[in-house]
Prior knowledge:
Layout: H1 15-26, H2 35-51, H3 58-66, H4 79-96, E1 104-107, E2 116-119, H5 135-138, H6 142-149, H7 151-154, H8 167-176, E3 183-187, H9 190-199, H10 205-210, H11 217-223, H12 228-235, H13 242-254, E4 262-266, H14 272-277, E5 279-283, E6 301-306, E7 311-316, E8 338-346, E9 353-359, H15 362-371, H16 375-383, E10 396-402, E11 412-418
Parallel strand pairs: 3-4, 3-5, 5-9
Antiparallel strand pairs: 1-2, 6-7, 8-9, 8-10, 10-11
Amino acid sequence: MTGKAMPRTDGGKTGDGRRLLVERIAVSRYLKRSARLRDLLLYVSGRVLECEAVEIHEQEVGQHVFGRPAAYDTTSDNIVRVHASLLRKRLEQYFAAEGMEEPLLLEIPKGNYAPVFHGRDEVSAALPPKAEMDWRLWTLGALALLFACSTAGLLWMAHAAPDPGRPTVRLFWSVVFPSGHPTDIVLDDAAVGLYQDLSGHSLSLSDYFDRDYLRTLPESAAAAKLDPRAASSIVLRRQASYASASLLWKLFQDAGAGREQASLHFARDYTFHALKANNVVLLGSDRSNPWIEPFEGHLGVRWIYDNVLGVRYPVDTWAGAAERGRYRPAQPGEPRESYGLVALLPNLGGSGNVLIVSGTGGSAINTTADSLANERFMAELRRRLPSAARNRFPNFEALIRIQGRGSQPAGARIVICRPPRG
């Protein structure tokens, strides 16, 4: 793909300038058609920009980017060195042509895979001073950033296996976190979800994964009468919703023995390969987590955003036309009901399972998560589904109504419970 670099919002003088540079390189014609090189660039850049890493080793890159075992032999497997060498050449090509006017340069030194950013006129490469954070914009993403930098630190929080007295709960979580198999927890991308709500512009998974939407961001923002610079600032924030971040504690509490194989991912960094190969937990709506898109054909419930009331509500697309407005929100000033959605489906490769958890808000999502750990609730849900093998929880989608602002499973009622289509 050819084209001019995206407009810069800050002249490359802050941490956002470095992030914008990385995004422009990732969608340039030099990396667009190579998912592995793009993943390599985004991973090592993210470790520097988000975790302030000063040294990144070959074995770490091999494990997290190329799926190698944690202790693989780097002397006999040179996949990282080969791709890093190719990436360095592509970076040189970018800065010599498409990025020739970039005020910042990005280099990956040999022997250390941590990228270095410096000005074109600087004699020696050095990282620019750390930018001051705008805490008003970053508060929402603080938890997600902490979790993304220290996934292993989350695992210590859940020491006890599920209560043996909850057989249905234990059966359900055993297919989400099966012992001996990896499970990926994918946090939603709240910034991209917010931008879609503000602009009314829907983003496909293909555009999200390839980052093509960044090239057309100024035009789509202007069409929605949004300031392009403000829109760029929103979209480039790497932040998950507070509801998704707080849900992690509940997930690890209920994961049981399989939690040791769990890993945490931000939606913007996830891949099709992982969605085909691993068990996955997808948090958020289809707008904030585009990885839900491939499974929508199997589900009847969709989320609709009401711009007037500023709320999200569910619609059952499999119901008749007269029934589709059943869950429309109340008028302003009237009590509102909240909803949670849970779906258990096969992954794209048919080798594992995908759990989708979303809701109308933080309280609804937390109540939904509590319900998944409640034996009485899960037993009722199981009774409403067709029979399956004794050691297997069947695939399903369930819409849950939460009365008032309650946050206990006792206030949750199953209004839809059925097998997925296909």
